[in-house]
Amino acid sequence: MPSYILQINNVAYPVEAEAQMPLLWVLRDLLGLTGTKFGCGEGLCGACTVLVNGEPQRACITPLSSVADKAIVTIEGLSEDGSHPLQRAWIAERVSQCGYCQPGQIMNAAALLAKNPNPSDAEIDAAMSGNLCRCGTYQRIRRAIHRAAQEA
Amino acid sequence: MDSRTLSRRDFIKLVGVGTGGLVLAIYLDGCAPQTTEPVPVISSLTPSQADIAAGTSVGTPTATPAASYTWTPSIFVKVDNNGVLTVTACRSEMGQGIHTALAMLTAEELDVDWANVRIEQAPTDSQFGDQQTGGSVSISGYYLVMRMAGAKARQLLIKAAAQNWGVEADQCTTQPGFAIHPDGQQKLAYGALVEKAAQIGQPSSMKLKDETRFRLVGSDIGHWDAPQIVTGKATYGLDVRLPGMLYAAIARCPVFGRRYNSYDDSAAKAVNGVRQVITLDDRIAVVADNSWAAIRGRDALQVAWDEGDTSNQNSETFLQATAARLAAQDSAPAGSIDALYQIPYEAHATLEPMNATAWFHDGICEVWAPTQNPQAVQRAVAGAVRLSTGKVIVNVTLLGGGFGRRLQTDYAEEAALVSKAAGAPVQVVWTRADDLQHDFYHPMRLQYFRTSLDRLNMPSPQGNRTASSSVPTGAWRSVDNFPQAYGIQCFLGEMAAALKRDPLEVWLAVYNGRAAAVIQLAADKAGWGSALPVGQGRGLAYHATFGVTHVAMVAEVAVDTGGVVRVRRVVSAVDCGRAVNPDNIAAQMEGGIAFGLTAALKAQITIKDGRVEQSNFTDYPILRIDEMPLVETFVVESDRDPSGIGEMGVPPIAPAVANAVFAATGKRIRHIPILPEVLRA
C-alpha cells in the first residue's frame, strides 16, 4: 500500500492507502475529519468541497495521489475558531437549515471570495451553482457572501 | 386574559390528547424525576461514545466554567450553578429549527438570556411520549408543554429566593437570569439558587407569562447549532465514529420487494479493505475498513436477483391504468369544464444519504441514527435482532434533511443486523443511487375535476386515485397536501379563465376568513394586477396544510422561447398563529418553495422494468442557486396559539407556478414537472 504525507489545515498527516482512494474518504474515514460531507460521490452536489492549493475541489472525485504534495484546507481549517468572515456572515444571515451542505457551500464561497472579493449576484450564482442545498437556503447564501465580502 | 393560570384539566383541554397532552399528563402528575438525572436511560456508553451520542449539544455560544451542580426540575429542563439552562429537545432537528424553537419557549418562561441556553437531544424514552417528528405538529403540541417546563423552574427559583430573603414569593419577580426582591433592588442569580430550589418540590400553581410580554418568542433567533454547522463540527449520522467501527454497503434488489437468488462474492472479497460479506434475508452486505472499500466491494458483487414479474412494471403503465379508472367516460357537457391532474413519484433526496450506525454487543444493541422516529427505530431494531425494546438504545444525531424519509426504519434495521452478524460496530453507508432507488416515494397521484360554470363553487375532485404498484410510498414533506393543492388550485385557475374573471377575484369569492386574508396580503405585496412584460405571468395559489396553517403565494414566472420556466419572485403570506421565530418561518417558506419547485419544474422518479431509472443529481436534479426565486415572506400577526410551519411552504408553490405559466403562455399544464419540452410542444 503506498504511503503519503498530506498537508491538511497546516498539519502533516501520514496516510497509507490506495492511490485512487478519494480524498473524501481519506478525510472522513481514515483521518476523522468529518466536516467534509458525502452527498453524491460523483462531484455533482458540492457537499465535499475542499480547497486544494486554494482551488475549490470536489473531494469525492479527487484521488489521494493527486493531492499528496498540495495544501489542503477543509472546513475544520478555514479558521481556528469559526471567525472567518464567511462563517460569521453565515450565522448573521441565519443561513443554515439542516446544515449538511453548508461546509461545502462555505468552502466554495471562500474560493470565490479569494478570487473575486466583491462578487455580484450573477457571479455568486455562477460560482455556487454546483453546490446543492435541498433545504433551499440559497437566497441567504447570496446574502451571506455579500455580507462577508463587505466585512472582509 | 392577563396571564394563564392553568389547572391540569385546562391544560389537557388546551393541548388535546395528542402527544403533547400525554407528556404533560406525565409531567403534571409529578412522575418526572426530581433528581439530577432526567431520565433513567439504559446505556453502556463509554465517555467517548457518549460524546458522540451527544454530538448535537457539543459547543457553547459563550465560554462558561464547568458546572459543579445541576438541577433537573423536569424532564425538559436543567439549570446549573452558572445559571445555564439546558433544554432537552424531544424532537429531531432536520433543519426545521425545532430545537431552537422549543428552547425559546422554555427560556422565555424561565426568563434567561439566549446566550445562557444550551440544547440537548432527548434520549429515546417513552417518558417523552411519542417522539416522532412529523406532521408539523412539534410547535403546536409543545407550545404549552415547553413553556410550562420553564414556568415551573422559574416558580421554584423565585420560591428559593423568597425563602432566602424571608419575603413572600408572589411579591418577587425575575429579570433574565435573576430573581428580584420586592424592593426592586436586591437580586439573586439563578445559579446561586438552584441547590435550594431543588429542595422545594412542586410549585403550587403554574403561572404562564402574559404572551404580550414575550421577549424571546417572536424575535428572530438563528438556529442554535449554527456555530457547529459552519465549522464542520455538527454531528450527523454519517459523522458517528466508534472505536473499531467498520463500514458497510448493501446490495438491495433493484426491483421492489424481491430478493437475491444467488451471488458470487469473489471479486468483492478481492477489494482491498473488504473484510466480510454478510447475507441478510433479502440483501447482501459488504463490510470493510472504510466506506470506499465497502462501496467498491458491494459494486463488485455478482448477484442474480429473483425479480419475478415485478420487472415488467413501469410508471407509464401505472399512469395510464390509473387515468383510465379516473377520467369520465363522457366528455364534459356544455357549460362545464373538466381536468385531470397528475403528480409523479418523487424522492426525498435528503442531502445526507440514508445511513445508520449500530453496535450489537453484550446483549444490547446501540444505534446512532439520523431519524425522525427513534421509538419506531427502537421497535424495528428490537424485532430485527430479537431483543426486547429495552435493550435497544437509540441515539438521535442531527439529520441532514428528513422530509418524511427518516420516519421509516429500514436504514437502522439493516445496520443492526449487519453489526450483529459482523460482531463489531458498523456504519451502513448508502450511496446516492441507493438513496434514490430505495426510497419510500411520494405516491403517483391523479385527480379528476369537473364543474359546471353557472355558479362559482369551491372545486373538489370527482375522482382521486393513487397508482397501485410495487413502488413503496411514504410521507413526503406535506404528504397529501401536495397533490390536493395542485388539483384544487390549478382547477380554480381554470375556472377563472373559463369565466374570464380575474383569478384574485375568484379566489376571494370562494375563500373567506384567515384564508382570504393571506390571499389578499400576498396579492397586495406582489402588486397583483400590475403589468408584466410579454412572456411573464403571475399565478396565485392558497392552501391550509393539515387545515391549520394558511399560506398564499403569488409566483412570478418568465417563460423563454425554449420553454424554460424561470420563477423570478414568490411572495408568500402566512398565518400560522403566533410566530415563535419569525425569521425561521421565512426560512421554512424559502425551503418549502425550493423543495416544491424541484418537483414542479425539474425532478421526478420514473420506473422502467421494475427499477427506478434515476441514480444521482444528474437525473434527479434538485433546484440550484441560479434557479432560486427571490422569496418574500409576510407573516400575519396573530394571538392564536402557533400551528406548524415545516411543511406548509410546499403545497402552494406548484399550482402557483402552473397558474403563472398559464398567465405567461396561455398553456395549461396539468402534470408536473413542467419541463421545457412540455411547453415547447
Give descriptors for this structure.
heterodimer; A: 152 residues; Ubiquitin-like (UB roll); DNA polymerase, domain 1; 2 domains; five-stranded mixed beta sheet; 5 helices; 34% helix; B: 681 residues; Aldehyde Oxidoreductase, domain 4; 3 domains; seven-stranded mixed beta sheet; 31% helix
Question: What can you tell me about this protein's structure?
Answer:
The complex is a heterodimer of chains A (152) and B (681). Chain A is of the alpha+beta class and 152 residues long. Chain A has two domains: 3-77, Beta-grasp domain (Ubiquitin-like (UB roll)); 85-151, [2Fe-2S]-binding domain (DNA polymerase, domain 1), CATH 1.10.150. Chain A is built from five helices and five strands. Chain A has helices at residues 23-30, 85-92, 102-115, 121-128, 138-151; strands at 3-8, 11-16, 49-52, 55-58, 71-73. In chain A, strand 1 and strand 2 (11-16) form a beta hairpin. Chain A is globular. The mean pLDDT of chain A is 97. Chain B is of the alpha+beta class and 681 residues long. Chain B folds into three domains: 4-229, Aldehyde oxidase/xanthine dehydrogenase, molybdopterin binding domain (Aldehyde Oxidoreductase, domain 4, 2-Layer Sandwich), CATH 3.30.365.10; 238-308 and 354-429, Aldehyde oxidase/xanthine dehydrogenase, molybdopterin binding domain (Aldehyde Oxidoreductase, domain 4, 2-Layer Sandwich); 472-680, 2-Layer Sandwich (Aldehyde Oxidoreductase, domain 4). Chain B is 31% helix and 21% strand. Chain B has 19 helices and 27 strands. Chain B has a seven-stranded mixed beta sheet. In chain B, strands 2-3-4-5 form a four-stranded mixed beta sheet. In chain B, strand 17, helix 11 and strand 18 (392-396) form a beta-alpha-beta unit. Mean pLDDT of chain B is 91; it is low at 1-61. Chains A and B meet through helix 1, helix 2, helix 3, helix 4 and helix 5 of A and helix 7, helix 9 and helix 17 of B.
